[in-house]
Amino acid sequence: MSLKDLTAKNIFLHKPYIPGKQPSNFEQTIKLNTNENPYPPSPRISKSILKQIDALARYPNSSADSLRLTIAKLHNVDVGQVIVGNGSDDILNLCVRCFSDYSKSIGMFDPSYSLYEVLGSMQGVEVKKFAFSDPKFEIEPEIISQSGTNLFFLTSPHAPSGRIYNNSIFSSALHQYSGILVIDEAYADFAPFNALSMLNESKRVIITRTLSKSYSLAGLRVGYALASSGIISILNKVREVYNVDRLAQHIAEIALNDREYFEKTKSNILSVRENTHQIFTKWNWKTYESGANFLFTQPIDSRGLFGEEIALNLFNFLSANNVLIRYFPSNPLTSSFLRISIGKQEEMDMLLNLISKWKTTDQQM
Description:
The chain has 365 residues and is an alpha/beta fold. The chain folds into 2 domains: 137 residues, Aspartate Aminotransferase, domain 1 (Alpha-Beta Complex); 202 residues, Aspartate Aminotransferase, domain 2 (3-Layer(aba) Sandwich), CATH 3.40.640.10. The chain is 37% helix and 14% strand. Helix 5 links the parallel strand 3 and strand 4. Helix 3 packs parallel to helix 10. The radius of gyration is 21 Å and the shape is globular.
């Protein structure tokens, strides 16, 4: 038999997730394409990390008990309502494996985080994609409740727009939806409110979080979920025994406990986000109000034109000048927009200067 014959059929049917570009030389690149934190992790980490080296000879705590307790205290939930994963993507994968199969489909709005579809197709699960009906990226609760799915993924704040959703939308959906609602809150720390209260409203809610964005630990891979103890118990049945290594558990706990540094870096990002948003607005660029560490904006060239060609032209111009941002051409709601991560003020100043140059030169085609 050939290798293809030996491979699960659904593997050839799905398209793998394509992450943002990772440059080989960070020092020569302004990286604003994958929503990483522009600041380093808590300075407490480097001071304690060497003390953990000898312990690496031993397996880590299989259920990350100390880290889970820290997370539980932070969110005022029982430790039995917390599960930790190798990034929040690990948790999302557990959700698909536990709560969907050939007879239990999953749902998502489109556009959204494309990994949901990838995870579903890898498991041979039907993925129902529901297109947003307008450019405001409004969530219609009845679409969720009438989706006929067993598991539904939402991003709040939404990616790639940054739009924040009121909890009343989730409440309305849960009132009639009989499945499990996963609220992906990867960017919630940058928003004025979150969906944590939904845990008290329904035992069919899973809230996922990551330390990649607001805690500057994208290179470490630590995420977690909050849910009812019943759901957590089910997720643990398929979780890998040592899915979060010893060093990651230790570093994540330090980062979560350094509230002063967390608030300081978050405040800086929010300030730069607001400053940049004001400039885009001054340029008459349509820019969504963001609850995340990025802005989703529709560029306008010197002729007053906007659209897919204009967005692609600016994307390529910035890339040629070693500034990486994100462009999503595959959807009509996103093809004339660019997603720009919030960097340090000096990085954003360089970005804005380049855009000003683009607007006043013959770089536009």
